[in-house]
Amino acid sequence: TPKVGVLALQGDVREHFAALSAAGAEVSAVRRPEELADADALVLPGGESTTMSKLAIAFGLMEPLRERVHAGMPAYGSCAGMIMLADKILDPRSGQETVGGIDMIVRRNAFGRQNESFEAPLEVRGVEGGPVEGVFIRAPWVESTGARAEALAVYDGHPVAVRQGRLLATSFHPELTGDHRVHALFVDMVRDALD
Ligand code: GLN
């Protein structure tokens, strides 16, 4: 059984625990470098990316996270977690850093005020059985991707799900829907990496 950690500094940790368990993973909380070392893979939850970044630095996790991602650990980030996995933020707050790993530039809170939160059905490449209900909450979009990053879903002309090798990121929150197919896709990626 793949051991998937959830970065548990801030954000919707509990919802990812439930979705990952349903998708067949053994799930644990990651707050310390030793807990990261014990996990085969990591989920970075939705929440607030500036706070998550500052806490990761304060907890001594930022460098270990970069090292593991660089070394090929599978990782999945939703919303704020997507921002954490982006190589570059278009409009970072002061002191905000990312783990990086996905060759993309993201724009925070990109969908604008009147549309800050909304739902839309999305076709996601690699997810069978019909559209996924995309729950967007003050979500980022992907401004541009490098050659190695593949858009798996597009909304309004912007990628909202991206994969690069063992890294996966979504602007939306499948952990809030009870539909575990995106988490199952990630757990399959983890299984492939462990083979
Ligand atoms: N707007 C948040 C950020 O910049 C992300 C929101 C979310 O994760 N739902 O981190």
UniProtKB/TrEMBL annotation:
Sections of the chain in a coiled coil: none
UniProt xrefs under InterPro entries: Class_I_gatase-like, PdxT/SNO, PdxT/SNO_CS
Residues of the active site: C79 (nucleophile), H173 (charge relay system), E175 (charge relay system)
CDD domains: GATase1_PB
Family recorded in the similarity comment: Belongs to the glutaminase PdxT/SNO family.
UniProtKB keywords: Glutamine amidotransferase, Hydrolase, Lyase, Pyridoxal phosphate
Pathway: Cofactor biosynthesis; pyridoxal 5'-phosphate biosynthesis
Function: Catalyzes the hydrolysis of glutamine to glutamate and ammonia as part of the biosynthesis of pyridoxal 5'-phosphate. The resulting ammonia molecule is channeled to the active site of PdxS.
SUPFAM superfamilies: Class I glutamine amidotransferase-like
Organism encoding this protein: Streptomyces daqingensis
Record-listed L-glutamine binding positions: G47, E48, S49, R108, I137, R138
Pfam families assigned to the protein according to its UniProt record, in alphabetical order: SNO
GN (gene name): pdxT
PANTHER family: PYRIDOXAL 5'-PHOSPHATE SYNTHASE SUBUNIT SNO, PYRIDOXAL 5'-PHOSPHATE SYNTHASE SUBUNIT SNO1-RELATED
Name by which UniProt lists this protein: Pyridoxal 5'-phosphate synthase subunit PdxT
